[in-house]
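Researcher: Can you fold this with manganese (II) ion in place?
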Amino acid sequence: MLNNDYLLIHPEVVAALQEGRAVVALESTIISHGMPWPQNVITAREVETIVRENGAVPATIAILDGKCCIGLNDQQLEFLGQTQGVWKVSMRDMPYVISQKIAGATTVAATMRIASMAGIRIFVTGGIGGVHRGAEKSMDISADLTEMAHTNVAVLSAGVKSILDIGLTLEYLETLGIPVITYGQDAFPSFYSQESGYPSPLRLNEPQAIAHLLKAKWELLLEGSVLIANPVPKAMEIPRDKMEQTIIEALREAERQGIKGKLVTPFLLKKIAELSGGESLAANIALIKNNAALGGKIASSFALISQ
Ligand code: PSU
Ligand code: MN
């Protein structure tokens, strides 16, 4: 396992990795930039507990004091949830934030790269970045996708949020050779909704089957990620049409304010939460917990067949 001046792995995570036990990586941008305080910190803790209940050790990842930290304590979670101005760290930001010793919350791209440095293979989040609407002009395509092309860490999300162009995102994933599997249904989900209007390229119904797919992919030396889409629980789903109105309004506001670059995704997430009141936040919390449970099961199964 890589361990150097830039990597600080929590002893519990080190022990689990050395013994070949299941570990699930978790990101921190969702804590610092994806949800309001205090729900962000409460949810982060609950997600860790759910990962444990499903047989895996949680490893929330962030950059603190010039180090990539894998596995955070309670104080660190609270700090990331409460502090204003925590850097949103994607791939390009990593060397800057580390060398300048700036506090950073890691995106999907940065989290999966750091997880892979420690040999963690399963990563649970809410939603990934992708190809933005209007990308044919703006070229706004998240580094999450290019990272997924290279790094051997499976990403579990509730599909792709329709702030993005879901069709183009699925095309791009295909181009990059990233398998997209939906758990237990034919439709590809769109974060708040169980469907997106697009069929899922692949479907599997058992965590064990997903673990076997991961093993086959990486034993074949097919590098890169697998996107595992887990639909939001039915009871918490927000209908697609209803969400579309909110998203259009949020996109219009971003346009009006001239929001660009790395600020786009956090701006849209915040605006949607404001416009849809507590409903979107409740759905967001429910789906990430749902993902943590499935991620724990897949990681447990993967650990078992990888020994
Ligand atoms: N999409 C969501 N929720 C999130 C994010 C995206 O539905 O919290 C966050 C993730 O951390 C993701 C990042 O990696 O935003 C993508 O940002 P960008 O589009 O700037 O690459
Ligand atoms: Mn972008």
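Model: Folded with manganese (II) ion in place. The two ends are 16 Å apart (CA to CA).
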